[in-house]
């Protein structure tokens, strides 16, 4: 099985530890992923701004980069959703069709392709899961409150399988965080308010570590947590799994908030 | 003013924003409870969507069938190509019977056509009889929600409005007392209404009857007391058969407020002895929307308001921030059809979270249409220049890995070495108003990979 790793542009530049954890977690699960260095971005930021036409060369570059792989895996439901759903505007060559259906969100890949639904390991903290809308409503990785009262999904199952981990029960289980790509700039006021409300829900219900499968939502929420200096750590879920599955000896205590003051730049 | 500007003004009152968000979320939760209780709810949505798709696919035939049957019932049917013609038809009917006073139950169509100001200018006294509509009418405001027109107002605001216009005691804010005052006030108005206008929720092709759903019974009261009934409808309100109606009435109230059914579901088929009934069928841009393959199914909308209640942006920016008769997600896909330039910011007033699509009882793919309108708005050159140039530049960088790597490094190092005050200056960087930027690492992932793995 040839697996290509897609690390979204902003993760590559600002959250390398998420990329590293993705690589290492896959390795622990027996998958040696390859990272083709000519990759850039999936094109979503342009397309969501209305510039789908301008994004076409980026789409072609993505397909060109990944067409030789059996699976393309990314720690970001949002990018995956974009490739699958919106790469319909370029000519549907064999390569394009292959890449569209071979691109997986990391946790979908772990659950559906590798068939892993439980992970051994320990993470004795209260964890609040932020569901990304593209992962949940777009890729159907979790149940939706619009349809059913049952709160279940791939990522919450994997998290629950860790020893000692408690998941936070939120008032609003799947409200959008307000990131929304360029929305976070063009509609700054509403975006910030939405993020503040999400963070508040977690704070009120005891979240120590705020996590999710999409670093873009988390970047936005983390920005608010750090601005308000809240006692909450923000981590991509892959970081949690990678540390929980660490061969013994590595301490996890560095992952809990140490004081009420989050560190500053 | 664009949506972001009006939204920023709304959120600047943090307390009111919290209240508005929570009030509408409460309605969304009531809807959830009602929906969870119906095991076949998703099948009902599909059925409703299919019936509407079918009807839209042969709308011309159903319209003619409807007209024929209505005429056979003794109803006078009028066709209006646009808002202006609609308003003129209503005025002509009123003048024809020498009427000068009108009572009107809830009708978004007449709001869309701006009928009230037109009639008032022509010497007609108009009274909205839906409580919420009456409140906003007294305040000379537009409704801020399809189903809950005065939802932007707290009971204190209503108390003040009634104090000024209806003479209730200053400071009175007890909802029961205020409702009583409104009821007394409206009863008088009903008695002098010579003509009654109602909206139309559903028009049944096979019978020529129209169905009006209300919770207050004000449509029935108005129609039964007046000599003339005018029912105003957009041409997309049709359903083929009476047998189809139950699908929609089960969905409408549950989606709107979580009620199993609206309190009144009134059928109007023909005029009473010695009275008149008119139906005005309005296009006003609907044919144009029907001709847009990507957007035609927005005409399936039954105006339940569920997409507003669920929309995290609407709840935090208020109905007036959309500056269009139909606010919220559905308004954002209907408005560019009417005037793309004026409403160009609305399709961007969304994170594309998709919740609207998932609550919509007739399965309109609202968030997908928002995305598609963005593409059209950009192509027609209605994007702000800064956005457009930025995206062109971004795209050319992202298609060229070497430049991309170089640019990323500059951005990252800039963040690492420039002072916080500069990188977070809100004049250049709206992100930083309420948020910290990510901490810049020394090394990118690709640097790590190339050093460690390769
Ligand atoms: S678009 Fe759907 S959810 Fe929104 S008002 Fe219309 S029918 Fe209701």
Question: Could you give a short description of this structure?
Answer:
Chain A has 265 residues and is α/β, with parallel strands linked by helices.
Report on the structure:
The complex is a heterodimer of chains A (265) and B (454). In chain A, helix 12 links the parallel strand 6 and strand 7. Chain A folds into 2 domains: 111 residues, no CATH class; 119 residues, Rossmann fold (3-Layer(aba) Sandwich). Chain A is α/β, with parallel strands linked by helices and 265 residues long. In chain A, helix 2 packs across helix 13, helix 4 crosses helix 6 and helix 11 packs across helix 12. Chain A contains 13 helices and 7 strands. In chain A, the strands form 2 sheets. In chain A, strands 5-4-6-7 form a 4-stranded parallel sheet, sandwiched between helices. A 3-stranded parallel sheet of chain A has the order 1-2-3. The mean pLDDT of chain B is 93. In chain B, 47% of the residues are buried. By secondary structure, chain B is of the alpha/beta class. Chain B folds into 3 domains: 108 residues, no CATH class; 273 residues, Rossmann fold (3-Layer(aba) Sandwich), CATH 3.40.50; 53 residues, no CATH class. The interface between A and B is large, with 77 and 75 residues. The structure holds iron/sulfur cluster (SF4). The site of iron/sulfur cluster has 16 residues of chain B, from helix 14.
Biggest sheet features of chain A: 4 strands, parallel
**Share of helix of chain B, binned:** 40-55%
* Superfamily (CATH H level) name of the largest domain in chain B: NagB/RpiA/CoA transferase-like
- Biggest pleated sheet of chain B: 6 strands, parallel
How many beta-strand runs of chain B?
Answer: 10
Tell me the name of the CATH class of the largest domain in chain A: Alpha Beta
**Overall SS class of chain B:** alpha/beta
Total discrete domains of chain B: 3
Q: Please, how many helices of chain B?
A: 22
The most extensive interface between chains reads: A-B, 77 and 75 residues
């Amino acid at each position: 099985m040839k697996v290509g790793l897609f690390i979204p542009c902003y993760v590559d530049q600002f959250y390398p530890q998420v990329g590293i954890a993705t690589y290492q977690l896959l390795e622990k699960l027996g998958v040696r992923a390859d990272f083709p260095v000519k990759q850039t971005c999936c094109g979503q930021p342009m397309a969501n701004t209305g510039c789908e036409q301008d994004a076409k060369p980026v789409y072609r570059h993505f397909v060109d980069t990944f067409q030789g792989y059996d699976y393309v895996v990314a720690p970001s439901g949002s990018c995956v959703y974009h490739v699958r759903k919106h790469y319909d505007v370029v000519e549907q060559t064999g390569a394009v069709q292959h890449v569209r259906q071979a691109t997986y969100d990391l946790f979908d890949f772990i659950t559906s392709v590798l068939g892993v639904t439980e992970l051994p390991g320990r993470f004795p903290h209260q964890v609040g899961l932020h569901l990304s809308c593209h992962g949940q409503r777009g890729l159907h990785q979790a149940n939706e409150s619009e349809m059913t009262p049952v709160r279940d999904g791939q990522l919450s199952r994997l998290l629950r399988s860790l020893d000692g981990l408690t998941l936070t029960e939120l008032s609003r289980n799947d409200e959008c965080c307000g990131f929304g790509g360029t929305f976070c700039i063009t509609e700054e006021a509403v975006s910030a308010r939405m993020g503040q409300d999400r963070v508040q829900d977690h704070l009120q219900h005891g979240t120590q570590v705020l996590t999710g499968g999409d670093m873009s939502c988390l970047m936005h929420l983390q920005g608010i947590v750090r601005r308000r200096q809240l006692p909450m750590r923000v981590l991509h879920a892959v970081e949690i799994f990678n540390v929980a599955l660490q061969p013994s000896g590595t301490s996890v205590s560095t992952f809990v908030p140490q004081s009420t003051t989050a560190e500053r730049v | 003013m664009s949506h972001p500007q009006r939204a920023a003004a709304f959120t600047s009152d943090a307390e009111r924003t919290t209240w508005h968000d929570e009030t509408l979320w409460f309605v969304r939760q009531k809807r959830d409870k009602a929906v969870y209780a119906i095991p076949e709810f998703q099948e009902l949505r599909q059925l409703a969507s299919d019936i509407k798709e079918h009807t839209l696919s042969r709308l011309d035939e159903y319209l003619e069938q409807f007209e024929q049957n209505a005429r056979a019932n003794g109803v006078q049917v009028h066709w209006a190509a646009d808002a202006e013609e609609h308003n003129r038809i209503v005025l002509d009917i009123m003048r024809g019977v020498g009427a000068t006073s009108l009572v009107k139950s809830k009708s978004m169509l007449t709001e869309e056509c701006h009928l009230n100001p037109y009639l008032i200018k022509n010497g007609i006294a108009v009274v909205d009889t839906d409580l919420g509509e009456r409140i906003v009418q007294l305040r000379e405001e537009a409704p801020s929600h399809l189903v809950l027109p005065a939802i932007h107002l707290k009971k204190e605001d209503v108390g003040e409005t009634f104090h000024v216009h209806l003479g209730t005691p200053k400071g009175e804010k007890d909802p029961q007392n205020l409702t009583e005052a409104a009821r007394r006030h409206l009863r008088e108005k009903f008695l002098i209404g010579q003509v009654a206008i109602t909206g139309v929720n559903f028009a049944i092709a096979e019978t020529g009857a129209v169905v009006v759903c209300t919770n207050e019974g004000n449509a029935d009261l108005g129609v039964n007391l007046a000599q003339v009934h005018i029912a105003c409808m957009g041409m997309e309100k049709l359903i083929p058969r009476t047998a189809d109606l139950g699908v929609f009435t089960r969905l409408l109230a549950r989606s709107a407020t979580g009620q199993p059914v609206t309190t009144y579901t009134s059928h109007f088929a023909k005029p009473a002895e010695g009275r008149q009934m008119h139906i005005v069928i309005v296009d006003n841009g609907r044919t144009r929307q029907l001709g847009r393959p990507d957007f035609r199914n927005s005409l399936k909308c039954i105006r339940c308001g569920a997409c507003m209640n669920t929309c995290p942006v609407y709840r935090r920016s208020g109905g007036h921030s959309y500056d269009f008769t139909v606010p919220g997600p559905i308004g954002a896909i209907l408005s560019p059809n009417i005037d793309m330039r004026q409403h160009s910011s609305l399709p961007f007033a969304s994170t594309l979270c998709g919740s609207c699509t998932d609550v919509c009882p007739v399965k309109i793919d609202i968030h997908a249409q928002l995305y598609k309108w963005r593409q059209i708005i950009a192509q027609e050159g209605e994007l702000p220049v800064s956005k457009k140039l930025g995206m062109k530049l971004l795209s050319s960088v992202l298609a060229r890995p070497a430049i991309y790597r170089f640019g990323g490094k500059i951005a990252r190092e800039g963040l690492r070495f420039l002072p916080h005050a500069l990188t977070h200056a809100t004049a250049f960087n709206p992100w930083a108003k309420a948020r910290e930027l990510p901490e810049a690492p020394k090394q990118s992932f690709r640097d790590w990979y190339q050093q460690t793995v390769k």
